[in-house]
Amino acid sequence: MIKIAVDAMGSDQAPAVEIDGAVQAAAQYGIPIVLVGQEDRILPFLPKHDTAGLSVEVGPGDEGIAMGDSAARAGGRKGDCSIS
Fold it and tell me: In this predicted model, what pLDDT tens digit does every residue of 49-70 receive, in sequence order?
């Protein structure tokens, strides 16, 4: 089965909205989801959702990419970012 990786740090409301959508997708479609990003920011949001029986996990991606960074260059230089 395909596993979907979600950049949990990708919006202005991160990671709340990414987690909401990921949990909904896992429940509705039965697909495994990996939330990639800063674990210390993601983990407090997970207990707010009923993830029993769902395959939702957290993958590390602690380095951030700033608005001024080129995504292509940052992905190569920042090996521990969510898009890597």
Answer: 999 999 999 998 766 666 566 6
Q: What is the CA radius of gyration of the chain?
A: 13
The number of angstroms, rounded, from the C-alpha of 60 to the middle of its chain's C-alpha atoms is 9
CB 7 within 8 A of CB 36: yes
pTM: 0.79
- CA 7 vs. chain centroid, Å, equals 4
DSSP 10-47: -STTTTHHHHHHHHHHHHHH---EEEEE-HHHHGGGGG
Residues in the chain: 84
